[in-house]
Amino acid sequence: MSGPGAVKGLLDYLVRKGLRRGLVGGETLWLVLGGAALALRLAARVLRKKEEVVFSEKLALGERILISHLAPRRHNGRREGPAAQP
Q1: Is residue 74 part of a domain?
Q2: Total structural domains within the chain
Q3: Using one digit for the tens of pLDDT, what is the confidence trace for 20-54?
Q4: Cα(41)–Cα(15) distance, rounded to whole angstroms?
């Protein structure tokens, strides 16, 4: 397992174990690890990218909106296939 989910899981584990063994068990090393993991988790929450609204419009009763995504056109006017996109 790797990626952002694994890092979050590891930080959650370190916070739980560090606070439990540090505060309850009196082990200073675990208290420091738990505190550092908690600080990293809070910093990640503060620094993560915020969502922004790019379009907003009120719809009247009975109106609807269709959201779609089309692949960009190549120089010959044809659309790129899924394999050509990164």
Answers
A1: no
A2: 1
A3: 999 888 999 999 999 999 999 999 888 888 888 88
A4: 9
Q: What is the DSSP letter of 6?
A: H
- Tokens read off for 66: 């269709």
Query: Which parts of 1-86 fold into alpha helices (H)?
Result: 4-19, 28-47
Domain assignment of residue 81, yes or no: no
Measured CA to CA, the distance from residue 4 to residue 39 in angstroms comes to 17
Which tokens in the block code for residue 3? 């990626």
Mean pLDDT of the chain: 83
Token pair for 21: 């063994």
Task: With H, G, I as helix, E, B as strand and everything else as coil, classify residue 46.
Answer: helix
Tally the C-alpha atoms within 13 A of residue 75's C-alpha that lie toward its C-beta.
0
Decide: pTM greater than 0.90.
Answer: no
